[in-house]
Structure formats: C-alpha cells, structure tokens
Amino acid sequence: MNKLVFIALFFFLFQPFAFAQYEPNYDESKVPEFKLPDPLKTFSGKKIRNAKQWEKKRRPELLNFFTQNVYGEVPGELNISSVEVVEQSNNALNGKASRKQVELTFKKDNRSLSYTILMYLPINVEKAPVFLGYNFYGNHTIANDVNILISEAWSRDNPSFGIIHNQLTEQSRGVRTNRWALDEIIGAGYGLAVIYYGEIDPDKDDMSDGVHPFFYVDDQQQPADNEWGSISAWTWGLSRAMDYFQKDADVDASKVIVFGHSRLGKTSLWAGATDTRFAGVISNDSGCGGAALSKRRFGETVWRINRSFPHWFCTNFKNYSKNEEALPVDQHQLIALIAPRPVYVASAEEDLWADPKGEFLSAYYASPVYKLYGKEGIVQKEMPGVNRPIQNTVAYHIRTGKHDVTDFDWEQYIKWADKFVK
Q1: One of 114, 239, 321, 403 is an active-site residue; which one?
Q2: Cα 117 vs. chain centroid, distance in angstroms?
Q3: Signal sequence span per UniProt (predicted)?
C-alpha cells in the first residue's frame, strides 16, 4: 500500500478514537479525582491563620503565580494622555438619567489608542455607585439610544446583528438591551458604565493590534511567555477606567462594581484580583479560566480554551493543557484574591460548558479566606436550588436558562450590591 494512502486511511479510521478522550465531559461520574490546593497553606506548606498572614505571605505568591502562569504580566505602565467628553445629555432615558460618553486616549512613541466609556447616571444621585462592564458588540448595542456613538474598531462578524466585514453598523443598535437591565439599574440608584472591549484589544489571535504593541521592544512581535494575553489587556482597560472615575465628580469611585459575562467574566475576576480599588466583582457564567475549577475537567477544559482562544491567556498557561493536575493553584484561589471585597458568582442551568458546579465550588472553597476577615461566604457544599440565590459577601446563584445575562441576574446583583457595596 502506498505510504500516503496508508497514513490517510489511518487518520480516517482512528482519528475519532485518538481525540475521543478530549471530547467535553458532561458526566459527573467521569470527573477525575483531584485534590484542590488549600488557599490557606503556602506553597512551602505553611498554614495561614489570619488576615495579616494572608496579605503578607499567601496572597502575594498566589497573585504572582496567576500573573506569571495564567493571565500574564502587564510589561509596563501606560497612563491616560487625555480625556474628552465627546457627548453628554442631562435628559437621557426619558429624564431619569444623564448620559456621558468619555474618550480616553493613550499615547506612546508614535502610537495612539482611544476607547470610549458610555455612562448612564441616575439624575437624582449626586455621586453614583457604578456597575462597570465590557460589551461584545459596541456601546450602541446596549440601549435603543440614537445618541450612542458607534465604534469603528474591529468586531467579530455577526450577520444576525448586521455585523459583516468586521465592522459595527447602525443595524446592530440596541440588539443587546436584554443583557443590561438599564432602567432597573438606574431606578435602583446605580450608574452603568460600559466599554466595547474590542477598542482595547480586538478579540482575535493577533498581537499586532490593540494595546500590546505599545510595550514591544525592538523587533518583538508577540508578548513574552509570561506576559499578558487579551484577558489581562482587557483588565488593564478596566483599571484605566477606574483611573478616570477617581477624577469624575459624578461617580463614587469607592463604589465601582466590575461586572463581566463569559470571557468578560473571566476578565472581571482578574480585574478584581489585581486592582483592589474595585469595590465588588461579578462573574456571570465565566467558566474555564474564570470561576470554574480547572481540575474538574468538566465542560470546557484548559486544553480546549487554549486551543480555541490561544490569545486570551499567557503562553505559560499552555503548560497546563491536558495537565491540570500539575497546576499548583485553581480558580477558587483567584476568587480568594478578591477578599475581603464582595464577589458574586453566577451560573446558568443549561450552561454545562461553563461547569456550574465547578463555579459554585470555587465560591465555596474561596470562602475560608473571607472568614479570616469575618465575612460570610458560602457555608454549605451542596449547590443551592435553581433560582434560589445565596446572598452573602461571597454570593452565588444558578438560574434557569442558557449562557446569557438576564433580568433575573441583574435583580440579584442589585439586591446584593445594595447590601454589600452601596
């Protein structure tokens, strides 16, 4: 038999079996046995007994490991060069809110990058607490408001939204109003600030655009193995928004809650871990690399996420693809890095890809760190019933439905923020 024919026949017959072990697992009985690393025991085995020891010894080493081996290090500083209010109105949402669109610009050498923060603030609140989050398809998608500027940044195509040739269009205005519960947020006395994530770093495996090249040295074309992927770049953008909020008289910068869904939920968790100025953190269906435990290998795995989205994490994270047992950390310790500030982890019943049980267990196993501060976390190891939230400093719910953000989610987030942030 011809050698090439033999090879082709081999792959045709045996490739399905070769890759069967990497098919997503949705069977709890097939979750491998694993031992989670203790958040209250250092890498050298020393027990952490109080908040002071946590902050001095354990928290720094955990933060350093996640930085160097999962999300990547930001290789320098880049401060805001200029701030411009490009549009504003005191009569938005039928007079219930003010609207402001603020452009932040960053310059270095011959490069320039700008992104726009769209803000709605309740008209009757002098300094408003704010939910801050990224959106997937442009600020103009979050509300039916003709005054919202349409970004010219690259976008993933979505023909159902009228987005083709990677260009945002008028046709996509208001297509994601269902995810933001804007009237309810404003009515509860909170502001909402949103940013199109593609303006900071386009969501594609290309490190030649966005903010990454601002820090390249000589002929560098890619971040170093321990340097930032896109999640860290988006996190950087959230922190620069916080820099701006601290100078905006309309915002209570001490009460900014960072929110994210899916890959942007991974981003909100990392933002909360790295920037202690955020008063609270919300992870909505964040899954692998977010709230879900990696060692469970349920739904999306480290291998799959690194294969499908190689630009999200630092290159060093690929050392743990199909090798989760070698990870000396897991995502419950990421959540613990947010302590003692409140954190909310949410799942959806049909979103098995994101591993709801793994997300819940992360919140549960992070709770002993919150206990060091006298804060109440998740005290029972059994998941709560569907649509039955646990509202403590560490909060959790699983709701009916799919991978999405719903009015039910926002209702819980607002109640929780009223109690623990506002």
Answers
A1: 403
A2: 17
A3: 1-20
Q: Decide if 403 is catalytic.
A: yes
262: left (phi over 0), alpha (psi -120 to 50) or beta: left
Contacts of 256 (CB under 8 A, 6+ apart): 129, 130, 132, 242, 245, 277, 278, 279
Residue 10: the pLDDT is 46
Contact 404, 179 (CB under 8 A): yes
Q: How many helices (H) and strands (E) are present in the chain, helices listed first? A: 10, 9
Task: Give 163's strand partners.
Answer: 158
Q: Are 191 and 117 in contact (CB under 8 A)?
A: no
Q: Is the pLDDT of residue 15 over 90?
A: no
Q: Which of these is catalytic: 232, 262, 283, 286?
A: 262
Residues 331 and 291 sit within 8 Å (Cβ to Cβ): yes
pLDDT digits (tens, 9 = 90+) for 366-381: 999 999 999 999 999 9
Amino acid at 150: I
Residue 86 phi, psi dihedral angles, 5° rounding: -90, -15
Secondary structure class of 258 (helix, strand, coil):
strand
Q: In 220-279, which ranges are continuous DSSP H helix? A: 230-245, 263-274
Phi and psi, residue 343, nearest 5°: -140, 140
Q: Which residues pair with 99 in a beta bridge?
A: 89, 120
Q: Are strands 191-196 and 128-135 parallel, antiparallel or unpaired?
A: parallel
Residue whose pair of structure tokens reads 């050298």 in the numeric block: 44
Name the CA radius of gyration of the chain, rounded: 22
pLDDT tens per residue across span 247-295: 999 999 999 999 999 999 999 999 999 999 999 999 999 999 999 999 9
389: amino acid identity, one letter: P
Q: What is the pLDDT of residues 57-71, one digit of tens each?
A: 999 999 999 999 999
- pTM score, whole prediction: 0.95
312, 289 Cβ separation under 8 angstroms: yes
Tell me the pLDDT band of 22, cut-offs 50, 70 and 90: low
Query: What is the architecture of the domain spanning 69-420?
Result: 3-Layer(aba) Sandwich (3.40)
pLDDT level of residue 23 (50, 70, 90 thresholds): confident
Would you say 257 and 417 are in contact if contact means Cβ atoms under 8 Å apart?
yes
151 secondary structure, DSSP code:
P
